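In response to reviewer comment 3 from the previous cycle, which asked for concrete evidence that the modeling workflow produces usable outputs, we include below a single protein chain processed end to end. The sequence was submitted unchanged, and the resulting structure tokens are shown without manual editing.
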Amino acid sequence: MKTISVLWITMTILCMSLSGNAQSSAERLRFYQYYKSAVQSKTAIINANPDLKQEAINNGWFQQMATGLKNAEDYANGVAGKNGRNGDAPLTGNGVCSSATPFCTESGTTYPAGVGTGEGEAGPNYGCLGSTPNPAWFFLKIKTAGESTITETNSLGLDVDFALWGPFSSQNNCSALGAPVSCSYSGNATEVISVPSSSVGQYYILLITNFSNQNTNITLSQTSGTGATDCNITYVPLAPVATAATLVSASGLRANWTAPSGDPYPATSYVIDVSASNTFSSFVSGYNGLNVGNVVTYPVAGLSAGTTYYYRLRGVNSTGPGSNSNTISGTTLSTPNDPTGVTATYTTICHGGSTSLTASGVDGTVYWYSGSCATTGSIGSTNPITVSPTSTTTYYARNYNNALYSNGCASATITVNAAPTLAGLLPQGANIKWYDAPTGGNLLPSTTLLVNGHVYYASKTVNGIESTSRLAVTATVGTH
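The workflow returned the following structure tokens.
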């Protein structure tokens, strides 16, 4: 009955993929999540009953479930019923170490080998492996101490290889993969993976490669040894679904996601990875597996302007972290460009005059400063702007956009001629006195600043006698 059920589910997936009604990525993912929930629930029941568990092992139930689950996962990824890895972009996968799939030796696993999926990521010490084509990553957790042997076979007898690292205190050790403890780069179709004797609770990371680059189904199963792995690591939460970033600024964004419905082992919190690399080969400081609590949105801060970032999530429960979500990218807002220039109506003006300045190459709002290219103490933000300097002054224009100032400024210098005084007013000569009235009034010093349109009165003294009449002179003072 169990075999028939698995075959029915597998046939359902194939029929759905071959039907005329194309399924959306969300629909395929929902199907996979429901199927995985059913498998996890049934597995928990079987593992709780020693007799039933032994019967399941003898009948190959775990292997059948692994095959059915992989078929469901392939369907969710849009590759069911196809050769290679075509279709929609994968919603899940273990092509990089940080996305390693939990593996239980009691149930084993069978999966279609990748074809044309590229080489393994940079960073790990791959030991004996001369190449790492079509990588698939797994992790194991030791339940029973002792050595064990995992046999790697494939359905077409092709050349596949492996490397094993460990032991580690947790599964998150992809940045610390030194020399493998077991490794083979032979041309054999069957590989023997020796897992050393380890303590309960330790982890190993396993890489399987498809050197042949041909379609085949790879099977991993324990064939000997007293050691055993912990199947509880497969009872982790379903992968959340990452959604588009919001509230994007020049220095941050808000990551968003949704929890899968119907998860029999739901997340009690989530961890987030943020990277400037779409392969997550490095991480933004503080965002490598950051636990953000039981929320479905989180603000990511401290980012650089004008940069594309990538984020992904994992649900976590008492068993541990689940699989990675899909990856979402978001580009922070850019620093505005510098203004390209400043022109002035008049570059030279007289004292008391004014001129108009216009910035070109404006990106956002232009702010004006006098004396230096600053970000504080702006004298205005209109363009053009009218200025009335009392001495020669350099003015700077700086762009402001996306809550950021441009890196530099454009500038123009306005020259201010000295203010005219009575000393420069005609008539000139010795013994000339200036007054502010035709008779009487106040005697004005020669340093008195001229006022445009104002009438000044001059007398002349000859042989010690000042003239009784005064010459009226109207001052004409230009502004530029």
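The chain has five domains: 1-83, 93-235, 241-331, 341-417, 422-474. We consider this sufficient to address the reviewer's concern, and the full set will be provided in the supplementary archive.
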